[in-house]
Sigma-70 family RNA polymerase sigma factor (Acidovorax benzenivorans), 179 residues
Amino acid sequence: MLLYAGGDLGAFDTLYARHELAVWRFVFRSVKVQAVADDLLQDVWFAVARNARSYEVKAKFRTWLFTLAHHRLVDHLRTAKHHTSLDASDDDARRLADTLVADSGFGPVRQLQSRQQATALIAAVEQLPLEQREAFLLQAEGDLSVQEIAEATGVNFETAKSRLRYARASLRQHLKEFV
């Protein structure tokens, strides 16, 4: 990021290639609509470009990036008039499940089981309260630590840790048939 802030445009391409998919998956799993996720992702990267000159190394770039994504997501949720469920879009649900399904090198039975597990996981994550879902997705998609999640969401360490613990417990309960 410091290279990009210093004028190296190729550094932006590197940052984008490294982090674009993780940020998109975090946003998409929060809003559940591909077009909205695409727009929010674009907003996040515009914010990266806009804030490049004022960027200061206070945490990992990834933490800063997911903080930007969190803020864009919160802004969107505040202004959105209604939220679409995965049930409302079978195509979006299928696409999301496809990102979690086992490699095609597995046989058809294993792929079917994997698709069922992926669909169950998506449904279970969707049922989590917003704060727990966000903490879980920041860790699962963003690979953020508990401290980084706390920083990204503006809460203290213990609150972030509790949200993750409750999210995992709820997911274990919902997915116990697959264990």
Q: What stands out?
A: Confidence is low (pLDDT under 50) at residues 82-90, 100-104. Residues 52 and 165 are 34 Å apart (CA to CA).
